[in-house]
Amino acid sequence: MSKKVTENGTGITRRDFINRSAAGTAVVVLDPVSAFFTGGNDGKIAWPANALDFRFHMIGHAHIDPVWLWPWSEGLSVIHSTFRAALDRMNETPDFTFVASSAQFYEWVAENDPEMLDEIRQRVKEGRWNIVGGWWVEPDVNIPDGEAMVRQGLYGQKTFERLLGQKATIAFNPDSFGHAGTLPQILNLQGMKHYVFMRPGPHEKNIPADLFWWEGTDGSRVLTYRIPISYNETKPVDNRVERILERFQNQPMKSFMAYYGAGDHGGGATKENIRSIEALKNDSAAPKVFFSTMDKYFEEVEKQNLDLPTVKDDLQHHAQGCYTAEIEIKKGNRQSEAALVTAEKMAAIGKVAWRANYPKHEFTTAWQRVLFLQFHDSLAGTSLPEHSQTAREGYGYALDTAHQSIIKNIQKLEWQISSEDPESEYLVVFNPHTWETRQTIEYDFNWSDRRAASRVEDEKGNPLPHQWAAGTTETGSRKTLITEVELPPFGYRQIRLMDAKTPPVEKGVQAQNNTLENEFYKIRFSKNGEIGILDKQTGNEVFSGGEGGCKALVINDPSDTWSHDVKAFSEEIGAFGNAKIRVLREGPVKGVVRVETSYGDSTLTIDWALSKGSRNIEASVSLNWHERLKMLKFSFPVNVETPEATYEVPYGHIVREANGDENPGLRWIDVAGKQNGNTYGLSVINDAKYGYSVNGSDIRISVARAAVFAHHNPKKLNLENSYQWMDQGIHTFRLLLVPHNNSWKESRIARITEEFMAAPVCIYQGIHDGKLPKTGSFLSVDKPNVIVSSIKQAEDSDDIIFRCVETSGVSTAATLDIHFAQRTWKGNFRPCEIKTLRMKPGTGQIQEVNLLEEAG
C-alpha cells in the first residue's frame, strides 16, 4: 500500500500536493473549495451554474490489500466480510452497485462460502456487481516479466468465467506504483480494451487529460482513465464530487467516475456514502449523480466521440524505492518466473517427443502462488516482515515444482539415450532455447588424481576443451569438471568423460593477481576493487577513466520504505574498498578472480569470470549487508559520448532520459553511444535486480537498500529504538557484462539474456541402452530477434501453446520449425508484437490465438 489518498480541506497550493497523515496513508491537499464554490447559510454546496452539464458515475468500491500491514490470513477474512457487506447494501438499496477485482478473492470465496458465491453470481447477472481487473490480483506492473503478466490475465479471466460466467472487459490496477508502456498490447490480447489506474498522480506524471488513449510500442491502444482524488471515501460523497468538479473541469469529457467506500483493509460502501448519494440525486442544482459501474461509464464515453489525447509512454513514477526494497522477494520472483517457464517448455514438448510428464495442476498452482506474491505491496517490498516468510515459502514451492519437473523429464530423456562404456562417465546436456548455443558447463564428478589423464568428447568422439577445479565439497575425489559444448536448438547432446589423453588447448584464459584475460578482453582489478576492461578489438577502455567499473557506491538514503517524493538516489557518502584479490581458477576454458571489499560492517565478494571464446564477462556477487538508511549501487561509467539508455520492460524495451532518475527495469539495461566516432555500448544483465539509474553514460544498478519494514512518512524513526531492518545479511546474485561495438539489437542482447537466465540442464547418466540418437533438436526459430518465450499445454486440453515475441522493435518475418511434430509455421511480426500459437499434437494443426488461448 502506498500513499492512500483521502481528502483534506486545508489551504495548501497544488504544488504542495501531498501531505502525510499519521495513519500511514497520504492525504491529497488542495486549494480550499471556497475558491471555486460558495456555501449557503444552510451549509449546502452552492453549485456553479454549469454543474448540470456534468455526470458522475458513482462507483461503489472497496480497495482490499490482501497483504500490507497484516498477513494474508487476515486479508482473507477482510475479503469475506467486505463482500458480505456489499451484498447486504444491495439488499437494502435496489439500485446500489459494486465493483471488485482479483480472481484470487473469488476463488477463496468459492472455497470457503459457496452460498455467498451464488449470491454474487446472481448480482453479476443483474449487472449490479461489476467484475473488473481480469487478473489474479492487482499486481505491481513494473517488476513482473511479460509472461507473468500474461498469466495474471490467463488465470484471472479463466477463473472469472468459470466461477461467474463472464470475463472482465476493464483492467483495473489503481494502487500499482507505475505502469509499463507495453501493457496495452497484453490487455488487448486478454480481452480488455480499457484501463483504470491512479498512480502516478498529477503531481508525479503530467498527462494531457485523465481520460486518454494509451498506446503501446506495438500500436495497441486501451482507453484509459486516471482516478481523480482517490479510490477510497468513507464520508458523504458531496465533498468528493465537489473536488472532482473543481479540479477537473478542463477535461475533454463531462462524465467522471467518482469512487467511494472504505478501503485498504476493505469495508466497501458505507450507509453514509449511500445516503449522501441519494440526497445528491434530489439536489436540483447538483451534477447528475447516480449509482453506476465502470462498464457503464466506458459504454457512455465511447458513444460520445470525444477528442481524446494519445499517450505513448509508460506511466511513471511513484515510490521509486520499491524497485529495490526487500531484495529477497525480488530475487524469488525473478528466479520463480524463469524456472517455471523453463519447466513448462521441457514438459510440454517432452510429453510429445519423449513421453515426459506434464504436471498441469502443479504448474498452475505454482504460478498462482507466484502471481499472488506479485500483489503490489508484496512484490514492492512494502508489507510487514511476517509476509516475507510467506513469500519465501511461496517461491520455494514454485521453484521446487519447476526443478522437480525439469530433472525428472530430462532423466526420462537420458534414459532413452545409450551410454555403453562402464569405464566412462556420461552427461546429457539440454539447451532450453530455440537457437544453437555454445556454453561453458560445470559438473562435479568423482575423479581420482590417480587417473593418468582425462578426456571429454562429444557423441562423434571430438575432443572438448576442459579443465578441473576444486569441487563444492572437500570429501574424497570430488572435483568440478569445466568444459565447453555446442548445443543444438531446443535440444540435447551427450558428452563423455574418460581416462584418456586430450589435445592441449592453446591460449586459454590467463588469470593473475590483478588481471584476467582472454582473446577479447583484458580485465584489471584496482586496489579498491573496481575494474578496468580493455577491449582488444577496439583498443579502447570500456569504462571512462580506465579502472572505474563496478564501483560499489554507498548512497545516503533516509527515505521511508516507499522513498516517497524521491526521484533519484545520488548522495554518495562512501564506497566499498580495501580489496583483497586472488585467483580462483585458470585454464584452457575459464578463469576466475575473486575480489573482496568492505564498507563499515558490510562485505562484498565478487567472483569475476571469463571463458575462452566468450565476449561476455560474468560476475557472481555475494553481499553481506549490515547498513541502515543507505543504498548500495554498482556504477558502470561507459566510455561513450551522446549516450542513449535502454531498459528491458515486460515483453519490450524503452529508451529513457539519462538524467540520473531512478527507473524500473527487468533483466538488462544498455547504454550505447559514440566511441571515437563509432557505435559502442555496454549491456549489463542480472538475475535479481529491478532498480536502475543512468546519469549521462553512467549505468547504476541499485543493489540493496536498508529501510525499516513498512516505514511510512510522516512516522519518524528514533535510531535508538530497536527496529526490524530490511535486506540485512547475505544476498547473492549474478551479473553479465556484454560490451558491444554495434547496437544492443545487433548484439542479440535479448538472446544472451535468455541464456543467462536459463542455463543448460546437465544430468548424469548411468550405464544403459537406449534408442534415441546422442544429439537431437526439437524446435528452432530462424530470426534472432524473435524469442519463443513460453511453451505450455493449453488450459483446456493437451494442445501445445507457443508464445513468440519480437524483441528488437522491427517488423520481421520468422519461421518456427517444430521438428518434433514435423511442422513449420511462418508469420509476420509487427515491432514488439506478441504472437501466441496453438497446435494440436495429433494433427499438427496450428492457429493463432489470443493470450487467453482463444481463437479470434
UniProtKB/TrEMBL annotation:
<feature type="domain" description="Glycoside hydrolase family 38 central">
    <location>
        <begin position="317"/>
        <end position="395"/>
    </location>
</feature>
<dbReference type="Pfam" id="PF09261">
    <property type="entry name" value="Alpha-mann_mid"/>
</dbReference>
<dbReference type="Pfam" id="PF17677">
    <property type="entry name" value="Glyco_hydro38C2"/>
</dbReference>
<dbReference type="Pfam" id="PF07748">
    <property type="entry name" value="Glyco_hydro_38C"/>
</dbReference>
<keyword id="KW-0479">Metal-binding</keyword>
<comment type="similarity">
    <text>Belongs to the glycosyl hydrolase 38 family.</text>
</comment>
<dbReference type="InterPro" id="IPR011330">
    <property type="entry name" value="Glyco_hydro/deAcase_b/a-brl"/>
</dbReference>
<dbReference type="GO" id="GO:0006013">
    <property type="term" value="P:mannose metabolic process"/>
</dbReference>
<dbReference type="InterPro" id="IPR000602">
    <property type="entry name" value="Glyco_hydro_38_N"/>
</dbReference>
<protein>
    <submittedName>
        <fullName>Alpha-mannosidase</fullName>
    </submittedName>
</protein>
<dbReference type="GO" id="GO:0046872">
    <property type="term" value="F:metal ion binding"/>
</dbReference>
<dbReference type="InterPro" id="IPR011013">
    <property type="entry name" value="Gal_mutarotase_sf_dom"/>
</dbReference>
<keyword id="KW-0378">Hydrolase</keyword>
<dbReference type="GO" id="GO:0030246">
    <property type="term" value="F:carbohydrate binding"/>
</dbReference>
<dbReference type="Pfam" id="PF01074">
    <property type="entry name" value="Glyco_hydro_38N"/>
</dbReference>
<dbReference type="InterPro" id="IPR027291">
    <property type="entry name" value="Glyco_hydro_38_N_sf"/>
</dbReference>
<dbReference type="InterPro" id="IPR028995">
    <property type="entry name" value="Glyco_hydro_57/38_cen_sf"/>
</dbReference>
<dbReference type="InterPro" id="IPR006311">
    <property type="entry name" value="TAT_signal"/>
</dbReference>
<dbReference type="InterPro" id="IPR037094">
    <property type="entry name" value="Glyco_hydro_38_cen_sf"/>
</dbReference>
<dbReference type="InterPro" id="IPR013780">
    <property type="entry name" value="Glyco_hydro_b"/>
</dbReference>
<dbReference type="GO" id="GO:0004559">
    <property type="term" value="F:alpha-mannosidase activity"/>
</dbReference>
<keyword id="KW-0326">Glycosidase</keyword>
<dbReference type="InterPro" id="IPR015341">
    <property type="entry name" value="Glyco_hydro_38_cen"/>
</dbReference>
<dbReference type="InterPro" id="IPR011682">
    <property type="entry name" value="Glyco_hydro_38_C"/>
</dbReference>
<dbReference type="GO" id="GO:0009313">
    <property type="term" value="P:oligosaccharide catabolic process"/>
</dbReference>
<dbReference type="InterPro" id="IPR041147">
    <property type="entry name" value="GH38_C"/>
</dbReference>
